Amino acid sequence: MSEIYDAPESPRITRAVQWLLALNIGVYFLQLTLFGSDAVYSALALDPARFPTAWWTVGTYMFVHAWLAHLAFNMLTLWMFGADLELQWGTRRLLRFYFICGIGAGICVVVLNYLLPWGNPNTATIGSSGAIFGILMACALLFPTRTVLFWFVFPIQMKYFVMIFGVIAFLGSFSMNSGVSNFAHLGGLLFGYLLVKKPSLNFDVASPVRRGYREWKLQRAKKKFQVYLRKQPPGHDRWTH
Fold it and tell me: With 0-12 CB in 10 A as exposed, 13-18 as middle and 19+ as buried, what is 199?
C-alpha cells in the first residue's frame, strides 16, 4: 500500500523539472524558428496510422505542443506538482515516472484508436498531457487532502481535483472531435496509478542496458588480464605483483 506524505508548502524548481521544462520549451522554440511546426509534427507527432513504422513517436510526441497556451498550461502544471514528487522521490525516479507515463499514454492512444469503434487512427497526438496526468494521479495518491485551486479560484482537495479531470477525460473520450486527446489523459492516469500503487512495476527499461554494459566491462577486463599474462616471461610468478 502506498504511503501518504505531507507535501511541501510551496513547490520550487527542482532539477528534473528544470530539465523537462527546458526540453519542452526548447522543442517549441525549434518549431517557431529553425524547423517549423509542420516539419516537427511530421517527425515527432504520434500518428497511430504510422505506428510501428514510426515507433519513436510514442516517446517524442510528448515534447511537441500546438500553441503557446498549450505549452504554458502543461509546463505550469509540471512545475506546480512535479517538484513535490521530485522532493519525495528524487530526480531519477521522477524522470523515469514522467517518461513511462508519457510513453504509456502514447501506447494507449495507439491501441484505443484501433480498438474502439469511435477511434480514429489517422488523428495525430501531441503534447505532454499524458505524462502530466500521470503526475497529477501520483499527487492525488500521495497528497490526497492537499488543497489546490480549481481553475485558480475554487479550493478543492487534490483527490477530488484529479477525480474531476478523470471524469472529464473519460466522458470526452467518446468524442473524437474535441481537439483533445482524452485517450492520452486516461492513459497517463492509468500508468500513474499503477506506478504508485505497484512500485514493483517500475518498467526500468534501462536495466538490461546497464547489465549489458557491466558484463562488457568485465569481459574486457578479463581479456586485458589474459593478454598481460601471455606477455610475461617464462617462470614469472603471475600471482606476485
Answer: exposed
